[in-house]
Amino acid sequence: MALWRSVGTGTLEGFSRVADLHASKLTVKLAKTLKPIPHHDTLTFGNTMSDHMLVADFEPRSGWSAPRIIPHGPLSIDVASSCVQYGTTVFEGMKAFIGPDGQPRLFRPDMNMARLARSAERMALPPFNTSQVLTLIKKLIEVDQRWIPAISGYSLYVRPTLLGTQMSLAVAASDHATLCVMLSPTGPYFRSAAKPISVIAVSETVRAWPGGTGGHKVALNYSPGFLPLRVAQKQGYQQILWLLGDDMKVTEAGAMNIFVVVRRDDGDFDLITPPLDGTILPGVTRDSILALGKAHTAGETTLPGLSRSTLLHTKEKTFTIPDLQRWYAEGKLVEAFGAGTAVIIASIGKIGYKGEDMVLPEHEGGLGPIAQAFRKRILDVQEGRESWNGWGVSFADL
Ligand SMILES: *Cc1c(COP(=O)(O)O)cnc(C)c1O
């Protein structure tokens, strides 16, 4: 029953006359003592939480509770809860920046809100009003604004999470849920930010498969990759290049979308990323790179550091390990990089497969010129130095 309630509607209509989430009902209980903010050099991704968090609960009879901002801390959750037993947990990852005007900013937050709603729907969790969630996120960030590092390349990572809190061991959808948003100051994702990462292509374990949940940001997609990641790291690689199928299709790198740059016979470049066929997470960064690449080639913008004659042909196209090996052998594989909110862009310097490494050209500063161009432009928009298509949203306009 609960499944059809949330499938395809995206509204609360399946739950008769229950309350939606309302930012106007927000209550704020501030922490008695505020934490010292660690020096930015000491920050490692996801290990420091700000002072406050946002919480709201859903119950099938009453709907969404009044949301509350409270000191960051443990929630009380029964061990028989759906999220504990069956992994009904979905999440988002976005970043808040301080603009040159001193105002906090978000990057394309509507895309994160829409994806959170799709993830919730896929897990048969109750729906919610996404614009109210965004308003609440804004209020939470304003309360903890001092946690946004005002240094380029640093930001406040925002982690909205929706938990299924139905207390039952029955294998069924959770009609109870808790929405929680936490904030974590962050710098470069990989400690050696200037250095390209190494990946090892793995086909024995798969991250996602046709008909699975790879296209959604659901917690269940990640933990099964921890053991293979540990094995990869023992072999001396930092991340896994996830393959799929007997033809060894390249899907994603770690928890990042992957791009490769292939030099063409006419001297232009193909910028290739796998298509959104349900096995690939529809990344906001991925979408932004594709759009900026197209705009550069159409002459609508010039990406920093690239000449007008460097033309990028963006392709959402399946490619395989044998394709990579062929491009590599022909000297056409000029760049490879992972893309995601946490890293923005991580250059890939080495791709291992069956005991052999494809080693990509080294560049000063770690990133190849095309990866660097995207990284710089995206950061410029995120941090408010440039505007593009309304992607950077200042709190003054939210
Ligand atoms: C979150 C995520 C990405 C990147 O998405 P962004 O919206 O760019 O942050 C890519 N792949 C996976 C598996 C992810 O979970």
Shape: globular
What's the number of helices? 8
Give the second-level CATH assignment, the architecture of the largest domain. Alpha-Beta Barrel
SSE order, as H and E? HEEEEHEEEHHEEEHEEEEHEHEEEHE
Could you explain how this protein is built, in words?
This protein is an alpha+beta fold. It has two domains: about 1-185, D-amino Acid Aminotransferase, Chain A, domain 1, CATH 3.30.470; about 195-385, D-amino Acid Aminotransferase, subunit A, domain 2 (D-amino Acid Aminotransferase, Chain A, domain 2, Alpha-Beta Barrel). It has helices spanning about 1-5, 80-85, 110-120, 130-145, 225-235, 285-295, 320-330, 370-380; strands at about 25-30, 50-60, 65, 70, 90, 95-100, 105, 155-165, 175-185, 195-200, 240-245, 250-255, 255-265, 270-275, 310-315, 335-340, 345-355, 355-360, 390-395. Strands 1, 2, 3, 4, 5, 6, 7, 8, 9 and 19 form a ten-stranded mixed β-sheet that branches. It has a six-stranded mixed barrel with strand order 10-11-12-13-16-17, surrounded by four helices. Strand 13 (about 255-265) and strand 14 (about 270-275) form a beta hairpin. The radius of gyration is 22 Å and the shape is globular. It starts with a helix and ends with a strand. The site of pyridoxal-5'-phosphate has 13 residues, from strand 13 and helix 6. InterPro entries: Aminotrans_IV (IPR001544), Aminotrans_IV_CS (IPR018300), Aminotransferase-like (IPR036038), B_amino_transII (IPR005786), BCAT-like_C (IPR043132), BCAT-like_N (IPR043131), BCAT_family (IPR033939).
